[in-house]
């Protein structure tokens, strides 16, 4: 009984240590993103530091399954003209199922759900809210590189997906259906509490989005495209992964 209690205490200590480390990294990255003048230099310094860390031959064996999800939240406020304001709140949840086809290399499917609310206020047009819900299906590939500490690993994840959106505008009772195409390459960090439980911290990285907010409208003037690369794309999100098999 005493030995079981010792293992339990050790596991809890490792869990909270790893959790606090990644939370610290998460908060540090958020702080960097708020510093417009120096954030790119610091992020590049972090990347350079990551490349100098030695790696060991830790492996995730082929045949294992990976189940998990990331959660991200973004909030921003923009001034609109004289006395106007636009507040944007975005919640992102993306469950994942992956299969390791080679050592440290997994492929699978990511299903992202995005809820965005745009609240605006203006002395000229009054107040209103537009809600946008988007579902994106994305095949993905992920590769892990372990550091000299087996519990820590870096990874790169690439995915390409198609999405479907529904907008509930404040000026109409009818919903607007849209579609989009997404491609993304994201770096991340993982902390392995055990061989099965992993905590992830992922950055948005490089992304390309093609969006048609109203697919029922034949006109092309409402379509928009965006390519994001640089410090503005490093929005972190946290998530857990559970590995099945040995």
Query: Structural class, please?
Result: alpha+beta
Instruction: Just name the CATH architecture.
Output: Beta Barrel
Task: Let me know the number of strands.
Answer: 10
Radius of gyration: 21 Å
Number of helices: 2
Regarding quaternary structure, what we see is single chain
Q: Per DSSP, what share of the residues sits in E-state strands of 2 or more residues?
A: over 45%
> What sort of overall outline do the alpha carbons produce when their principal axes are compared?
elongated
Question: What is the CATH class designation?
Answer: Mainly Beta
Low-pLDDT segments, ≥5 res: 50-55
If you consult CATH, what is the topology?
Porin
Number of domains: 1
For the biggest sheet, the summary is: 8 strands, antiparallel, barrel
Helical residue percent band: 10-25%
With strands numbered from the N-terminus, the spatial order across the biggest sheet is 1-2-3-4-5-6-7-10
N→C terminal distance: 27 Å
What is the average per-residue confidence, as pLDDT, rounded to a whole number? 78
What are the secondary-structure elements, in order, as H or E?
A: HHEEEEEEEEEE
């Amino acid at each position: 009984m005493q030995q079981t209690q010792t293992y339990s205490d050790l596991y809890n200590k490792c869990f909270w240590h790893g959790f606090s480390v990644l939370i610290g990294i998460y908060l540090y990255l958020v702080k960097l993103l708020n510093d417009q003048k120096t954030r790119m230099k610091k992020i590049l310094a972090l990347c350079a530091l990551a490349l100098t860390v030695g790696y060991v031959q830790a492996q995730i064996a082929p045949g294992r399954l990976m189940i998990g999800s990331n959660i991200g939240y973004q909030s921003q406020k923009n001034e609109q003209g004289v006395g106007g304001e636009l507040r944007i709140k975005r919640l992102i949840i993306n469950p994942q199922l992956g299969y390791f086809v080679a050592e440290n290399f997994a492929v699978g499917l990511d299903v992202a759900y995005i809820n965005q609310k745009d609240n605006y206020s203006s002395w000229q047009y009054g107040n209103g809210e537009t809600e946008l819900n988007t579902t994106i299906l994305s095949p993905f590939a992920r590769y892990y590189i372990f550091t000299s500490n087996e519990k820590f690993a870096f990874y790169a994840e690439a995915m390409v997906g198609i999405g479907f959106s529904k907008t509930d505008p404040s000026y109409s009772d009818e919903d607007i259906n849209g579609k989009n195409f997404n491609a993304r390459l994201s770096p991340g960090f993982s902390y392995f509490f055990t061989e099965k439980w992993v905590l992830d911290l992922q950055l948005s990285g490089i992304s390309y989005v093609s969006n048609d907010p109203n697919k029922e409208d034949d006109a092309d003037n409402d379509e928009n495209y965006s390519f994001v690369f640089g410090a503005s794309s490093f929005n972190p999100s946290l998530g857990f992964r559970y590995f099945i098999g040995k």
